[in-house]
Amino acid sequence: MRVLRWFALWLPGVADGGLVSPQGIIARAALSPPLVATVLALFVGLIPAIQNLFFGEGAIFGLTITAALDDFGQCAIPSTLLVLGAQVR
Amino acid sequence: MSVCQGVTTLVVFVFTPSLLFVNVAETMSTQLLLNWWPLPVFAALYVGVGAGLGLLLALLTRLPARKRNWVIVALAFRNTVSIPLALVAQLAGTLAILLAGPDDTPQKAARRGEAYILFYSAIISAVRWTLGERLLRPPAPGRPRSDSTTSSSSSSDSSEALMPPPPPPPPPPAPLVSEAAAGESMPAVPTLATAPRRRRARWRLRQPSWRDRELSNLMMLSVVPALGRRTRLAGVPDDGGRGRHRGGELEVVMEEDDDGSVDDDDAVGLPAASATEPTGAGPDVSYLGPPYPVAASRAAARQLGSADVGGVDHVAAVVAATGVPPVPRWRHRLRKVGRLAKRVGQGAGAALVRFVVAWSG
User: Which residues contact A4 (CB under 8 A, 6 or more apart)?
Assistant: First the structure.
């Protein structure tokens, strides 16, 4: 019960940080690409019809969008390692 | 440094989202989401444990609020994306134990591990951008928080310094995920964000005031009355310090000096200066002539509460005169009952002894 009350007290507190308007929400969400990517990935992955458009044999976007995103994604780990290594002194 | 920032920008804005999208969207399914229920649970658990440890540490070291929030955030949100991804990518090629079966390839194993990590970090980041941002908001409102180097305090600025300002709590992408996130991690947020402030006020040590010291003195004196000041109460007949007197409602314990005499220095604050003593608005207790501040001892007596005959002023007067609060009436009754019980017990014991002796003899 106490947790629920805290939660009820906390929600408007989050909302007061400029998140009330939908423009604010969209603007803030657009500024966090990993979160947007996660939400999009869940949206795509949980609907098999959309998932089949991107992944699998003979997918429509398989050789264009998915392949490009895959190549970009494969850059993530080496470049992160590069940055981490550059910071270690 | 500018090269680092450029690469970081690329990583944050392009590479990591695409990696996340491809991995999660490819391996995700409803059944998998049901199988992966420990991931959000453990995410919430680890965040909670880290925040609790940070809070404990900050309370033990009495950090100010701003640094305390930093400690909490640094312990609650560890590196959950960059280093685990790199580790999995390397370990999947070398450790055969990570393969699921004979037809599994290291590439598939790496994919699976990346999907686990990214899903886990998605849950973590949802909490991070709400709770963590809220904890860090007062010192630096729009300051981006580093993702990959929070636990190593040295380079918190540089790794993902271009990490943008925090997004809102995530919109529910699917009913399962929103339920998991709301059920596991969200209710812990307000307590963690607001609890330190309350608890700090309780933990802070106050400078003891005169009244506090007097109160503790009174407490100790009521427990150990022999430590009371050697005073002589005005108007009480002096019997050489050997007995107890009950003058009116007062009970005064007289004590002897080391040389066995009751001197003049035993009497503290006899009513010589009583005419000039300001006694406040209460009844006139100046006949006791206390060297004590009357108002303070009155407040202390009021806090003692259970003292004798009505009126805190009486108690205050007794305290001021003797240094010992008057014995409460219920304690008198208890003593009477105790004395009676002692007599009865002695009699009963004697009777029992007689009985046994008579029967054995």
Answer: B187
Cβ(A61)–Cβ(B7) below 8 Å:
no
Q: Which residues 222-251 in chain B show a CB within 8 A of chain A?
A: none
Task: Write the Ramachandran bin of B248: left for phi over 0, alpha for psi from -120 to 50, otherwise beta.
Answer: left
pLDDT for res A33: 74
Nearest-angstrom CA–CA distance, A72 and B15:
5
Token pair recorded at residue B173: 């992408």
What gap in Å lies between CA A67 and CA A47, rounded to an integer? 20
Domain ranges of chain A: 49-89
Q: Per the structure block, which two tokens stand in for A44?
A: 């795509």
Nearest partner of B246 among B303, B188, B322, judged by Cα: B322
DSSP-derived secondary structure letter, B360: H
pLDDT at A88 over 60: yes
Helices (H), chain B: 2-10, 16-27, 30-35, 38-61, 65-76, 82-94, 106-127, 133-135, 175-184, 188-203, 210-223, 294-304, 312-322, 329-360
The helix-helix angle for B38-61 and B106-127 (nearest 10°) equals 50
In this complex, the residue of B11, B13, B167 whose CB is nearest that of residue A35 is B167
Question: Which of A35, A37, A74 lies closest to B129 in CB terms?
Answer: A35
Left, alpha or beta for B104 (phi > 0: left; psi -120 to 50: alpha)?
beta
The one-character DSSP state at B12 is: I
Task: State how far the alpha carbon of B109 is from the alpha carbons of A84, B93, B353, in Å.
Answer: 24, 8, 88
pLDDT value at B30 more than 60:
yes
Q: Break chain B into its structural domains and give their ranges.
A: 2-203, 210-327, 334-361
Unique residue bearing structure tokens 């910071």: A87
Global pTM exceeds 0.90: no
From residue B178, alpha-carbon distances to A39, B146, B210, B216 in Å are 11, 25, 56, 55
| Contact check, Cβ <8 Å, B166/A84 | no
Contact with chain A for residue B7, Cβ under 8 A: yes
What mean pLDDT comes out for the span B298-320?
Answer: 58
Q: What is the pLDDT of residues B212-230, one digit of tens each?
A: 556 665 655 555 444 444 4
Question: How far, rounded to the nearest angstrom, does the alpha carbon of residue B323 sit from its chain's CA centroid?
Answer: 34
Residue B141 and residue B165 in contact, taking contact as beta carbons nearer than 8 Å: no
